[in-house]
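Raw record, unedited: 3'-5' exoribonuclease
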Amino acid sequence: MLHAPSTQAWIAPRLSAGHVDADGMDFPNIAELKQQAGESPQRFTLDAELQSRSERQTKTGKPYLVLTFADSTGSFALNAWSDAPLFEAASGFKDGTALRLDAEWTQNSYGLNAANLHWERLQGTDLEAFYTGDPETRARQQVAWENITTLLATLHDPRLATLCRHFLEEFGPRFRRTAAARRNHHARRGGLVEHVSQMMRAADAICGVYPELHRDLMLAGVLFHDCGKLWENPYPETGFAQGQTLYGEMLGHIPLGIELVNKLWHDILDLPEAQAWLTEDPPSETVRLHLLHLIASHHGAYEFGSPTLPRTPEAMALHHIDNLDAKLEMVKDAYAESTQIVPGIYEKRFPLPANLVEPLPHYLPPT
């Protein structure tokens, strides 16, 4: 079974090099910038794509812009105040414009700040190098994809196996570039594949501990629980700017996921092999209903957007696996990006409930 190393530390070492441009110069990517920036200004040059901009007003009525930048490792927001050169320049930038940003960077609980900022548009070979993405992220997401396909190849129920295969064949490329969220966890191009891979590995392990759980249903439920995010958190074929669709805005990923699975289910019922499923037990309609329930209930509570509550063992397990993976991803990000208030205590990062404390190191037996 393919998987990422299990010995990865919660607190990653501080990195010093990221994207390499066409001339061989090193630049930190966004994830690395967040790791390194702190209270004291540090000068870094960063390549990033303008994802979006929104107009705001201060309490005194002065306008300012919130500019969101992204690359293959994540995103950040930067305020452009009305008296700053960036405010006027940003009006000439289209969403999706790739820029080289050189500034004195700091970071606090509100995010990154850039002083003495200079910028230029990326062009030619520098632009091509930027859009190849971060090599580490690409490699990690390839392993995640292989984890998913390897685990799904072990499904026994022909209906669920065919449904999963049909989804990956029809929507695989879109799935592989979708984010798991707009913020908080796996909020990057390809983040959904990483999230689903981790959840699927966790579900497989939990089914070994609780063999009463329906393993095929669990793995299929993990694959489809966030499939509506293909329209809620989409990315174009190239680029790192997360888009929006009317379907995602007006319906949300849970109704979209239910609708997609219903469509795919009816598609596979037209296949020649579906005739043999008429005598399968449990009946196909019951299997479909249980799978839809996992999608509908995976947020676990009405106030978090689920139209129903988990009512089966698999639904309860899936909800907690989803929440666990999201929370632990937030913890990793918080350790990487938060400032230490005092040694060993990290500044609280939304939406985690409290300040983080440095974790206990692994015990290394003497050699």
